[in-house]
Design brief:
The chain is mainly alpha-helical. The protein has 10 helices and no strands. The protein starts with a helix and ends with a helix. The N terminus and C terminus are likely disordered.
């Protein structure tokens, strides 16, 4: 029984890591498959269900990225049904904000962003997880056409959470998207060109290894 639990734990960690890699590469369907496997393993092997809420929140994020509102809401509700900590509650509100932003309910999106902010300002254990809050906040400012705040938030994310440039390529894509929404096609094209050039360089570098 112990060995089965160890096997299950290893499989769960593997699927979690693979899901994160696919997410970074914007391979959302593959990331969803691995996130689902992660949840199935937790339930099958009766592992610690402490992280189930966060896993469901992760699926909400991925389905929003794919434009599947019904599936996003279904997993958001599942996340809400198994909240055991301030950190999980924080993630729930971040993903709720993302969901409501996706369906263009900006009032509910802002309310959930404020609840998430209250949690990370009042709970020390939440403060190490705030990057995703700022990512959704940046999207909120973009969608509500507060472009100056969107760019300022993006700059804050890069300066605060990505000092080694891990976020550099994704930041180019986001900046291009913001300028596109602003109607500044020249700057949007510039950043999209830099984004695709970086993608090509990264791909070539990986092939040379």
């Amino acid at each position: 029984e112990i060995s089965e639990c160890l096997v299950g734990s290893e499989m769960c960690i593997r699927d979690s890591v693979l899901g994160s890699i696919y997410h970074l590469k914007r391979l959302f369907n593959l990331s969803i498959d691995n996130k689902k496997k992660e949840i199935e393993i937790i339930l099958q092997y009766d592992l610690d269900k402490y992280n189930l809420s966060t896993s469901y929140s992760g699926l909400t994020n991925l389905y929003c990225e794919l434009g599947e509102a019904d599936k996003a809401l279904k997993n958001l509700n599942k996340s809400a049904s198994c909240l055991y900590s301030s950190t999980q509650e924080f993630y729930y509100h971040v993903r709720a904000a993302q969901y409501y932003l996706f369906i263009e309910d900006y009032s509910q999106s802002w309310k959930n962003l404020q609840k998430a902010k209250e949690l990370f300002l009042s709970k020390k254990e939440v403060q190490k997880n705030v990057e995703e809050y700022y990512e959704v906040l940046q999207k909120y400012y973009t969608e509500t056409k507060q472009f100056k705040k969107a760019l300022e938030t993006l700059d804050y994310i890069i300066a605060t959470f990505n000092p080694n440039g891990r976020y550099k390529v994704e930041a180019m894509r986001r900046r291009a998207s913001i300028y596109y929404e602003m109607g500044d096609n020249s700057k949007s094209a510039q950043y999209y060109q830099e984004y695709y050039a970086c993608l090509l360089y990264t791909s070539d570098a990986a092939d040379d290894k």
